[in-house]
Amino acid sequence: MGSEKETYTFRCTVCGWEYESDSPELPEDFVCEVCGVGPDMFELVEE
Known about the structure:
CATH topology: Rubrerythrin, domain 2
CATH class: Mainly Beta
Order of helices and strands: EEE
């Protein structure tokens, strides 16, 4: 079997920038690289 790590994609609901993480939670100090909003403005993208 493969040893693939599950990845989670988060999308900024303000500007649409997407971030890939290996955790289903974003850190509290996370900020969008494009518009600077915090993790509460991100949604988990369901594949």
